[in-house]
């Protein structure tokens, strides 16, 4: 199993055996309100399995993978990357932490570690992250990592036509999804 070592955390590439752990972190009652809303509810376990199974390989892949964020011997959260090559070369990141691990800088360290890994491993220089505008603390952390709003951002320049149809509006709709970009 591949591990990326940081100063305080380790990122471990998640295998299919970790899928339920990642899902449980995603839908935990104490963080669900930061990630989901009525119009965009949490996925069911079945939906998560159907949509995400290809990202639990236990190793780095050119397309992407989920990773566990380990801190002091426990799983503190999950981070993932999904690389796109259809229209331009980019990587989309996603992250969530358990509530007891929020505000410690672990998310910032995880993003910086994964961003550097993806850049070095796959030569990707452009990263996007698409949080809910109302998740103010997450947005602040993304800014610390070098992400910023780009007034010329157009998701159709990134996603394939199929992905654009399904994911183009973002998880929170066009009005509430914040599109952040980081370029090397």
Task: Give an overview of the whole structure.
The two termini are 28 Å apart. The protein has helices at 19-26, 29-35, 45-52, 106-122, 136-144, 161-167, and strands at residues 3-5, 9-13, 64-71, 74-84, 90-97, 126-129, 148-149, 180-183. It has a single domain, classed as Aminopeptidase, CATH 3.40.630. The mean pLDDT is 93. The longest helix is centred in the middle third of the chain and has 17 residues, at 106-122. By secondary structure, the chain is an alpha+beta fold. A hairpin with a 5-residue loop joins strand 4 (74-84) and strand 5 (90-97). It has an eight-stranded mixed β-sheet, sandwiched between helices. It comes from Natranaerovirga hydrolytica. Residues 17-181 form the N-acetyltransferase domain. InterPro entries: Acyl_CoA_acyltransferase, GNAT_dom. This is Diamine N-acetyltransferase. One of its GO terms (molecular function) is acyltransferase activity, transferring groups other than amino-acyl groups.
């Amino acid at each position: 199993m591949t591990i990326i070592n940081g100063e305080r955390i380790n990122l471990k590439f998640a295998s299919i055996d970790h899928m339920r752990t990642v899902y449980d972190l995603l839908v935990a009652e104490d963080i669900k309100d930061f990630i989901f809303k009525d119009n965009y509810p949490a996925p069911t376990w079945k939906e998560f399995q159907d949509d995400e199974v290809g990202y639990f390989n236990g190793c780095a892949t050119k397309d992407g993978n989920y990773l566990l964020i380990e801190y002091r011997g426990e799983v503190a959260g999950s981070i993932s990357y999904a690389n796109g090559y259809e229209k331009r070369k980019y990587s989309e990141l996603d992250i969530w932490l358990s509530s007891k691990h929020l505000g410690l800088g672990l998310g910032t360290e995880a993003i910086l570690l994964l961003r550097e890994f993806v850049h070095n491993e796959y030569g990707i220089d452009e990263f996007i992250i698409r949080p809910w505008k109302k998740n103010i603390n997450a947005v602040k952390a993304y800014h610390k990592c070098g992400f910023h709003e780009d007034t010329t951002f157009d998701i159709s320049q990134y996603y394939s036509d199929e992905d654009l149809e399904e994911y183009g509006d973002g998880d929170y709709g066009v009005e509430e999804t914040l599109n952040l970009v980081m370029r090397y």
